[in-house]
C-alpha cells in the first residue's frame, strides 16, 4: 500500500514539474494594456499604454468594439502609447481594447468602461438645439404677425366674456 502511494505521489510530482517546464512564457491574450481613464463618457479621449511589447516597439491598437476603429501605439521610452476618441454614439458598457505588438504579434488587452456620467459623478446633459422647423416662441417672428396674433387673442377673449355676460343675465345667445 505504501509503495503504491509513493509511486502515485512521485508520478504526480513529476507530471507537475513537466507541466511547469512546458508552460509558455506568455499566453495568447495578455493583460498588460493600461487604459486611461478607465471610465469615459461618449466623445472622450482615451490614452492606451503598454510595456509588454518591449522598449522602442510599436503596436497596432483596435478599439472597434467601442466603435473607434484602429489606432497606432508609438514607442515611448520603455513602452508604447496611443490615443483614440470614443464616438459620441457609444453606448454605456464595458469594452475590450486590444493592442497587437508589431515585433512578435503578441496581443495585450485592457477594459474600457463607457458611462453616461463623468468620473466626477456629474450628469452629462445634451447640448445644442432641436431642429423642428417650427421656430422659437419669442425673438424669432415678425413683429407685425406677433401684434396681429395678440390682437386676435384679445378680440376672442372680449367676445367670450360678452357672451358669458349675456348668458348670465338670461338674454340668451
Structure, described:
With 173 residues, this protein is of the alpha+beta class. The protein folds into 2 domains: 25-114, Immunoglobulin-like, CATH 2.60.40; 142-173. The chain is built from 2 helices and 9 strands, in the order αβββββββββα. Strands 1, 2, 3, 4, 5, 6, 7, 8 and 9 form a 9-stranded mixed β-sheet that branches.
Work out the count of structural domains: 2
What CATH first level of the largest domain would be assigned? Answer: Mainly Beta
User: Any idea what the CATH superfamily of the largest domain is called?
Assistant: Macroglobulin (MG2) domain
* Class per helix and strand makeup: alpha+beta
Overall geometry comes to: rod-shaped
Mean pLDDT: 77
Helix run count: 2
Fraction of residues in helices?
Answer: 25-40%
Features:
Immunoglobulin-like, alpha+beta, 173 residues
Write the layout of secondary structure elements.
Layout: H1 2-21, E1 29-30, E2 33-36, E3 39-40, E4 45-50, E5 59-62, E6 70-76, E7 79-85, E8 93-101, E9 107-114, H2 143-169
Parallel strand pairs: 1-9, 3-9
Antiparallel strand pairs: 2-4, 4-7, 5-6, 5-8, 6-7, 8-9
In short:
By secondary structure, the chain is of the alpha+beta class. It is 27% helix and 28% strand. The chain has two helices and nine strands.
Amino acid at each position: 500500500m505504501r509503495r503504491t502511494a509513493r509511486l502515485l505521489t512521485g508520478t504526480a510530482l513529476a507530471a507537475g514539474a513537466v507541466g511547469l517546464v512546458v508552460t509558455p512564457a506568455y499566453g495568447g491574450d495578455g493583460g498588460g494594456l493600461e487604459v486611461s481613464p478607465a471610465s469615459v463618457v461618449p466623445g472622450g479621449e482615451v490614452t492606451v499604454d503598454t510595456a509588454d511589447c518591449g522598449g522602442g516597439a510599436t503596436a497596432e491598437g483596435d478599439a472597434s468594439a467601442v466603435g473607434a476603429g484602429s489606432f497606432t501605439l508609438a514607442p515611448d521610452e520603455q513602452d508604447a502609447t496611443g490615443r483614440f476618441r470614443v464616438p459620441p454614439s457609444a453606448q454605456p458598457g464595458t469594452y475590450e481594447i486590444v493592442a497587437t505588438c508589431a515585433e512578435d504579434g503578441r496581443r495585450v488587452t485592457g477594459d474600457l468602461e463607457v458611462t453616461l456620467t463623468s468620473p466626477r459623478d456629474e450628469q452629462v446633459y445634451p447640448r445644442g438645439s432641436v431642429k423642428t422647423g417650427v421656430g422659437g416662441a419669442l425673438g424669432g417672428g415678425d413683429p407685425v404677425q406677433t401684434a396681429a396674433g395678440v390682437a386676435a387673442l384679445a378680440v376672442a377673449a372680449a367676445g367670450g366674456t360678452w357672451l358669458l355676460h349675456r348668458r348670465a343675465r338670461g338674454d340668451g345667445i
